[in-house]
Amino acid sequence: MTGARPFSLGRRLVRRLAAANAVILFGATMLYLWRGYVRHEAFDEGSELQAWLLHELVSDVAPVMLPLFVTTLAVAIMTIRRGLAPIKELSRQAADFDPSLLTVRLPERGVPQEVLPLVSAINAGLARLEEGFEAQKRFTASAAHELRTPLAVLKARCSGQECPVSEMVADDIGRMARVVDQLLAVARLETRQIPLDAPVDLDEVCQRVVSDLYPLAVVAGRDLGLWSEHPGKLARGNAIVLADALRNVVENALRLSPPGETVEIELLSGGVIRVLDRGPGVADEHKDEIFQPFRRGAGSRGGGAGLGLSIAAEAAGLHGGRLAVADRPGGGAIFTIDLSRAVIPSD
Fold first, then answer.
1. Long-range contacts formed by 173-179: CB under 8 A, 24+ apart
2. Which of 84, 131, 158, 249 could disulfide-link to 170, CB 3.0 to 4.6 Å?
3. Mean pLDDT for each consecutive 10-residue tract of the chain (347 residues)?
4. What is the pLDDT of residue 166?
5. Which helix (H) or strand (E) holds 325?
6. pLDDT for the residue numbered 277
7. Which residues pair with 314 in a beta bridge?
8. CA-to-CA distance for 310 and 291, rounded, in angstroms?
9. What pLDDT shows up at residue 318?
10. pTM confidence score
11. Distance (Å, rounded) from C-alpha 93 to C-alpha 115?
């Protein structure tokens, strides 16, 4: 039922046990007093009956029934808490599930017998998911082998022919190879099959991207600049994946910026990287969807397939960050890779 309100099983059991104990205590008290009353002679005056009832309640009933009630309730509460403790631990472990740790299973030892079928069903489902991810990994590896090699051979053959058609075919093959590489990158990121076990220097990442793309920017008639406010570092991450993410964002900015303009990369304190361009910008209604696979902006030019920004967004999310876009004053766009949640605080 979608409209059912959540409830606490432990509190519900405690309330019901407390109510049951109170009913039993009341019934036992009444029975005890009635038996004591019928065994005594009839009371002539009401004051004698009241005095006898008060004496029985204080001296005989209360010292026995009240400790029994408190002890029974305390034992019930302790039993319920200990019985539900394995379920809370299972919930904590289930919250830590991640596609990068597909071999993890919920423990079945020490689990209440009533919950064991549910735990076994969850583990069986995780095993099926692991098989599915492994099959996907094998498929991507086979696709890389089956697609990259023929494309490389075709490009090599076409580049050896001196005719305009061969150059066009070589360019098309190059774009196809780029799309294949991006598709494989998206598959690896979405399945979280990326090691994040090494410290990352964000300043080195930015410098590497600028060094790789500066010659391409010069050939395209653009300039590329880097300004670092404060070098940031991540305790755990993958420098290659982050460099690819930043490279995709910068390549997009270079492609959209007019000739003669400068694409600026800024590394701000707190692990924030900004890429500023003078392109057509991004309309407000498209600011979220451009990070989806195969989504291209209205001003996109070139042979891109709309995967670069998707890859960058996935890589940022893999490191606990996010990729966003905003308008740049004077025209253009500002792409921000915010890694502030994962950066090591500076002294």
1. 175/303, 175/305, 176/151, 177/148, 177/151, 177/152, 178/303, 178/305, 179/305, 179/307
2. 158
3. 55 75 75 63 56 66 72 77 79 76 80 81 87 74 67 68 62 69 64 73 91 89 87 83 89 90 90 91 82 60 63 84 90 91 70
4. 62
5. strand 322-327
6. 93
7. none
8. 5
9. 82
10. 0.55
11. 15
φ, ψ (nearest 5 deg) of residue 112: -55, 145
- With tokens 């979280």, the residue in question is 192
Q: Rounded to 5 degrees, what angle do the CA atoms 288, 181, 244 make?
A: 60
What lies within 8 Å, CB to CB, of 196 at 6+ separation is 100, 236, 237, 238, 318, 319
- Which residues in 196-281 belong to E strands, given as ranges? 198-201, 223-228, 233-237, 262-268, 272-276
Topology of 198-338 in CATH?
Heat Shock Protein 90 (3.30.565)
C-alpha 63/C-alpha 182 separation (Å) is 78
- State the pLDDT at residue 196: 77
Helix or strand run (H / E) with residue 256: helix 239-256
One-letter amino acid identity for 110? Answer: G
DSSP β-bridge partners for residue 45? none
